[in-house]
Amino acid sequence: MCHNCQKIYKAIFYAMVLFTLLHSRLDANDIMFQPAKIEGDVRIRNQNVNSLELSKEFALLASDIVSNDFYINSTAYTEDQSDSNTCMNGRIHFVSRDIFYFPNQNIPSVTTTLRNCKTGKITRSESLLQGYIHSALKKHYSKVFRFLPVRNAQKIGLSRTQNPDISIFLDATGSMSYEKQAIQSFFKDSNRNTTSSSRLFAVSNGSLESSNGISLDDLAFGKPNSTDHLMIAFSRMIASKSGNSEMKINYLLLNPSHYMNSLAWISKINEARSKGFTNIILIPYQTSPSDQLNIEKIARATGSEFYNLIGSMKVGFADGKEKFLSISKGYLYISETSPLQKDDLDNSNVLIGKNRVSYEGQLNAFNIREAFEKATNNKIIKEWEFRSNLNSILNEVTEKKRYPDFSNGRKVLIRTHGEAFWININPSIKVKEKQTVIVESDYILDSYSANGIRNNPILTKVHGENYIYPKLLEFKPSEILDYINKYNLGSLRCYMYGVVEEIR
User: Fold this and answer.
1) What does the pLDDT look like over 311-331, one tens digit per residue?
2) N- or C-end of the chain: fewer Cβ atoms within 10 A?
3) Nearest-5° angle of CA 397, CA 180, CA 329?
4) Quick one: average pLDDT of 402-421?
5) 168: CB partners within 8 A, 6+ apart
6) Do the bridges between strand 311-316 and strand 387-388 make them parallel or antiparallel, or are there none, so unpaired?
7) d(CA 434, CA 28)
8) CA dihedral 60, 63, 69, 70 (to 10 degrees)
9) How far is CA 390 from CA 165, 171, 338, 448, in A?
């Protein structure tokens, strides 16, 4: 009896110890960042940052980076005090202080002093801050705190994650040449952000070519391929990807005329389906209404998803006005403020409000100007680059397959510093119109977006207006694209402070 009592007491004791450890771990500030010391002339992009507040802002920036990159709790002091006094707080394990040097002509640098409050040991680390300062500081702190466990790059938490094996089966002809850059961008992002194998299977001049898709300089977008050549190449692709994989996604991007032999394609796509492929048909923007119906029939018969691509071009007129011309599903769409979006095609009420005209013949990137002038008797005097939403569709659909829990995300229009920007958020985030928010997210290039960028909903958090964040990482939408291009970044993590105007 007493022996059993001892077991019970011992279990209760260990449970209490475990609870105490976990509770202190959640509440403790393991690293305290002191206000930084700054020497030299700091040129700040963000005009909202007061030069007198820079010391605190750099401490907030350090705390923000370390909290996101490592399994550790950190915070920043708003008032300067000695490291020894800070260590007297028993809940602080390390005290960190940065000294930044900003010489006039030379590369800036940082020296970090780290004090271990328990042992009293002090270590110093120095780094040059080359390129974008946030990226440079991430590398620096990975050196300073190399003893800490690193967070997973995606920070998904308990959400389900799959790493699909991605293939794009491409009909590489002249009419598809406008998609070259979008395909390259997708494969660069895919190979950088996933551990899966992504391949491009392109049929060029009747021959199948397989590559990682990152460089297409040697791929000829030439004369039309025959349907027979495409079917033979499709069978070869299926055979080459016969190995076991967690998920196999196959995107088909073919000229719409090849789907005329619908029964043969239904058989081929179902064969791929039987071998574990999830098939997704990308419908080119030059597809006629009759071809559209035929492709939708093939998709239904094969259990395939299908997405309509949209091609758009901004144009200007003699009176100074500008419009966006878009083509999809065999129609020409005219809008005032932005290119036609995928959501517009799915929403008949939006389409009713658009100026949509038919065109005799096949609409494409080469005749969109002629089609508009013929339909409206309005002469175009200036035109911008033609672009499509292919990269947007590929990234969006692939993200939904990788993270099934985020498949029903929403779009939120944020008004910030006089600019409006649509962000994508996961369905668990609660927001309402007219609410002031602080959006934390990662942004990548997206040539079809009105701002040239889009956010990653998987890495997006929405905070209340009183949330404390480093102002050095606050950006306007118009600034993000410039910084990604200037520093050749794969993505840019930053904050936006604004008001929710609309929710979709």
Assistant:
1) 999 999 999 999 999 999 888
2) N
3) 60
4) 83
5) 183, 186, 199, 200, 201, 213, 250, 251, 253, 394
6) antiparallel
7) 35
8) -170
9) 19, 14, 17, 8
